[in-house]
C-alpha cells in the first residue's frame, strides 16, 4: 500500500521539511502536525526516515503516511457501494471508476474509506475494528486500485482480518486477475523485470535495469485484431502502476491511460480513463480459511470499446 508521494519543486528546494510540508498541504494548516509525523517516522526522504530540519533538494521524493489527528478527521459518507460479499470480518466490493480508495492530498472526502466508515459505522463505534483505524487515514484498506481502475477490492472489518489479509498480500497468497484493452497485442507471455521511479518524470514509474523492485505479470490474450486486443493479466507482485508500466514497456499501452498510454489514440476515440478492470480474486478467508473466489464483469464502457474496437 503506497503512501502519498510528492516531489520537491525548485521553489521549495532548501526549505525546512516541516515548514515545506505545512505550506504544501495548506488544507491541514498545521506545522506541528508534520513535525509529529516526521518524529514518528511517517515521512520518508528518498526512502529514508526524514528529520524535521532536513532541507531537501529539487526533485527529492517525499513519502507521507498521513495519520488521523484533530487536524485531520475522517467523516462517514453515505456513498453507495456495490457489495459482492460481506461477513463480520471482510467486505468485497466492485469499485466504480472515479472512486479514490483512501484519503490523500486533493481527495480527503468521497473516498472508499469514507464510504466504508459509513457502511460499518456501528462496528467502528464498538471499537471492534483494527486499532490503527483510530489514527490512520486508511482504515480497513489492505490493498488498493487506482482511481480510474475498476473492479474487485477487499476491505477488512476487524483487527484480525486486517492483520492476516496484509500478511496474505505480502506473501502472495491472494490471486489477482485483471482485464485490459490494449493498443496492439502483447500476446501470451510472462513479464518479469524491475520497476522504479522514472529517472526524469518523477511522478511516473518505469522499467529499470538497476535498482527498483521485482515486478511479475502474466499476460494471456483473449481476443485481438490488427489494432487492439483484450487481454487477461495476472499479477504476482503489486508494484505501483505495474500493469500499465508493463504494457507500455511492451509497446502495447492500455487504451485510455492518461499516464502511460497513447494520448493521440485516446483523444481520437474519446477514452478518458484506462480500460483496466480487476476481474477476479481468489483467496482463502483470513479467519475461516474457506476458499473464496469472486468475479466482476467488465463495466459498460469497457464492453463498449471492446465490442467496437476488437469484435
What brief labels describe this structure?
single chain; 311 residues; alpha+beta; Structural Genomics Hypothetical 15.5 Kd Protein In mrcA-pckA Intergenic Region, Chain A; Pseudouridine synthase; four-stranded antiparallel β-sheet; 8 helices; 14 strands; globular
Q: Helix fraction? A: 10-25%
Number of helices: 8
- Under the CATH scheme, which architecture of the largest domain would be assigned? 2-Layer Sandwich
Strand-and-helix sequence, N→C?
EHHEEEEEHHEHEEEEEHHEEH
The CATH superfamily of the largest domain turns out to be Pseudouridine synthase
Query: Got a strand count?
Result: 14
How many structural domains in the coordinates?
3
Separation of termini? 36 Å
- Structural class from helices and strands? alpha+beta
What's the shape? globular
CATH class of the largest domain: Alpha Beta
Average pLDDT works out at: 89
Uncertain regions spanning at least 5 consecutive residues:
128-134
| Beta content | 25-35%
Find the CATH topology of the largest domain.
Answer: Pseudouridine synthase
Question: Quick one: biggest sheet?
Answer: 10 strands, mixed
Report Rg: 20 Å
Amino acid at each position: 500500500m503506497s503512501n502519498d508521494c510528492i516531489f520537491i519543486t525548485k521553489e521549495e528546494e532548501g526549505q525546512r521539511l516541516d515548514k515545506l510540508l505545512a505550506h504544501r498541504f495548506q488544507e491541514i494548516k498545521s506545522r506541528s502536525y508534520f513535525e509529529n509525523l516526521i518524529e514518528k517516522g511517517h515521512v520518508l526522504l528518498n526512502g529514508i526516515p526524514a528529520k524535521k530540519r532536513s532541507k531537501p533538494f529539487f526533485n527529492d521524493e517525499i513519502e507521507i503516511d498521513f495519520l488521523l489527528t484533530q487536524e485531520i478527521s475522517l467523516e462517514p459518507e453515505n456513498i453507495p457501494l456495490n457489495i459482492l460479499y460481506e461477513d463480520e470480518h471482510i467486505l468485497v466490493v466492485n469499485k466504480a471508476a472515479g472512486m479514490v480508495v483512501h484519503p490523500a492530498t486533493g481527495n480527503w472526502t468521497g473516498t472508499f474509506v469514507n464510504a466504508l466508515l459509513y457502511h460499518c459505522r456501528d462496528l467502528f463505534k464498538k471499537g471492534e475494528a483494527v486499532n490503527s483505524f483510530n489514527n490512520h487515514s486508511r482504515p480497513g484498506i489492505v490493498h488498493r486500485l487506482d482511481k480510474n481502475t475498476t473492479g474487485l477490492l477487499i476491505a477488512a472489518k476487524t483487527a484480525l482480518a486486517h492483520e492476516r489479509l496484509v500478511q496474505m498480500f505480502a506473501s502472495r497468497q491472494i490471486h489477482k486477475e485483471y482485464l485490459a484493452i490494449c493498443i496492439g497485442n502483447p500476446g501470451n507471455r510472462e513479464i518479469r523485470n524491475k520497476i522504479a521511479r522514472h529517472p526524469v518524470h518523477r511522478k511516473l514509474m518505469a522499467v529499470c535495469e538497476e535498482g527498483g523492485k521485482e515486478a511479475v505479470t502474466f499476460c494471456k490474450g483473449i481476443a485481438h485484431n490488427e489494432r487492439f486486443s483484450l487481454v487477461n493479466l495476472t499479477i504476482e507482485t503489486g508494484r505501483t502502476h505495474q500493469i500499465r508500466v508493463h504494457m507500455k514497456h511492451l509497446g502495447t499501452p492500455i487504451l485510455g491511460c492518461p499516464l502511460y498510454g497513447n494520448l493521440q489514440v485516446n483523444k481520437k476515440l474519446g477514452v478518458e480513463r484506462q480500460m483496466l478492470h480487476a476481474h477476479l480474486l481468489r483467496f482463502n478467508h483470513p479467519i475461516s480459511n474457506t476458499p473464496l473466489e469472486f468475479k466482476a464483469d467488465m463495466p459498460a464502457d469497457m464492453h463498449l470499446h471492446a465490442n467496437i474496437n476488437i469484435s
